[in-house]
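Good morning,

Both structures are done.
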Amino acid sequence: MKVLVTGASGLLGAGVAQILASRGDQVTVLQRRPAGLGLPEVLADVADPAAIRDAVAGQEAVVHLAAKVNVVGPWREYRRANIDGTRHVVQACRDAGVTRLVYVSSPSVAHSGRSLVGVAAEPADPVSTSGPYARSKAVAEQIALAADRGALAVVAVRPHLVWGPGDTQLVGRIVARARAGRLPIIGSGAALVDSTYVDNAVDALVAAVDRCPQVRGEALVVTNGEPRPIGEILVGLCTAAGVRPPHHRVPKRVAVWAGAALQAVWPNGNGEPPITRFVAEQMSTAHWFDQRRSREVLHWRPRVSLDEGFAALARWYAAAN
């Protein structure tokens, strides 16, 4: 197929584009800066409707990953990238006769801060989510799935806590804070959390491209299916990177309160605060998911276990150092 992948400068988008190209699909990537993948690329912002329309023309499938993923920042930036950008992609797909759209979402679109224990993909809810990222992604997922009609088949895939070698979003932030001695365990550290090794998330998105006509209109959560205590995950990532794991604890109530307060007063353009309410909730509540539907309809299974992923991450850090 002719496939456009947006957001291919990120770890997940790059992996999807490379796998699609390696199996013979004609892949074009779109992002704001060069991805260095050796594939035809369009340098553009998803908030530019004319550029998106031109990039989508002639494509058969689109995998839409481009998004603002920070946990703080002005709402207008999230609305522009995540909501307006998705609306432009959807409209361009309809205008160009694209038949498959895979929208890459997040389980946070249905997380109100309470524990999620063995649940499937619950409906996106912009009202009860915490933080501008989750709210904007929830609205964007609703826009994408509402476009599933006629010739255009749409599926939303929610990979949860994707990590792996070269990851700057999750692993990079955790390791940097651990090195600086600013990575606490929030609460008991025993909350069970699902995560997804990057190769498995890539495989799931490629499977979604293939199975889009059969699972159209659905939202599917994708994880390794190996929930572990959040404290154990943090230790695994830090150990792989060769940094001291977290050893001090902060009560959940204190962390959530401090995160909300800091987020409210933190200056724009001054990086991320030490903690936000969203991060405090994510690190202190259980969130693991029923994977039966995702695996059944995508014809997909994780091929890299968490322990194998930790070992691969350790090898990557050893080679980098």
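Second structure follows.
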Amino acid sequence: MAVHHRLPPHLLMSSVGIAGLIMLNACSSLPEINYLEPGLDQQQKTALTTPTVNNAKGELSTSKAQALMRQRWKNSSIGLANIQALAAAEESVTGSPLIAGNQVTLLFDGPQTMAAMMSAIRSAKDHIHLETYIFDQDELGLEFAKLLIEKQRAGVEVNIIYDSVGTIGTPQSFFDNMKEAGIQLLPFNPVNPAKLNGPWSPNRRDHRKILIVDGEVAFTGGVNISASYANSSLFRSKSKNPNKVGWRDTHLQITGPAVAAFQWIFLDTWLSTGDKQPADKLYFPDLKNQGNKMVRVLASEPDSNPAIYKAYLLAIQEAKESIHITSAYFVPDAQILKALIAAAKRGVDVKVIMPGVTDSGLVFHAGQSFYTEMLEGGIKVYQLNVAVLHAKTAVIDQVWSTVGSTNIDTRSFLHNKEVNVVVIDTEFATAMENAFKEDMRLSAEVTLEGWQQRPKINKLKEWLARRFEYWL
């Protein structure tokens, strides 16, 4: 099975070599986050400023923001003051406000996600913006490309950003065919140094998955354009056929004011790395409130403000009751691991679902190298064995949730372009919890006693993989 989001081994071990990559990244490190220590008393927390809340008409007044937060968060078991303090701290470290008035729809696995995205594309009247890590020339990729070409020829502007490593196995003719139809394409950070305008930084990748249609609907999450997603996993699958199991992933469809944030993210990448400016289309139409969900759209850049990392760490540090993480590639840095163990030791229910089968053996064993420390620290570990796990989600205290492209590893937090949506809402969190429970039902728990009995060859693989965790 192909490695879908890492630097391929022949690039990782190329003439640049490990020593060269060390030099390239020697100054890169994740920041310490201690904005909200668990020991802060209630008076200190309530002294924090109220988080900024925007909607379709702009920034809400403090009184209206407070009223909205009381309405949406009143049923949370951890209390309104705790949620407000976390939301204010999150805004402070990420620089992104909460955006109210959105409809957020959970999409599970490839078939449901692709059907929703293709339906939106078919209805496009002005423009389509697609940013993806993988765009394969396979049955699903060809169908997706054909639809985009049809819309371009019908007068809808189509702009595509694709990562040069993620699409390294895709023939250039596949993209040339779209280009000949009038679609504008931007290959992010070409592997060939001769095609670059700036310095060669092969470790910097665009791992985002974004689709924006007419500036009115946005999609994001973990799903790439690939036939790997042609079948659903056993999760909510109608067939329940174990011989036709697809990848387990999660995506979002969003309408409302937050769509403009995705448009800015896409255009920022296009204008900062491309040599052609998109046509002057209606990228920012007047957006109306479409629902009642408050979200924060977070984008991270290589070697820049790791906003998604900060949001994750703050939520973990402040967790009161539960931390439920589903992670395709779980290779945590020391600070994330310490925060998770600290949460478990103060009585928080910390559960992590990780892959039992994977598309990346090196990352798989690197993740397993943390099992002993996690289990000894009170973290409960589960392995999903019925499908290739590719989802990147978390739900904390049944009120704070995130879905996106970001894995819990240094590559995602430090070296990739990533995008995540944080939803602070008890109703949405309930849906996330239900999905987590369904995944857990299809997973096997890893116990400390059982884990200690694993073969010595596995221990060796874990030790070796751990040596490369920074570059995975």
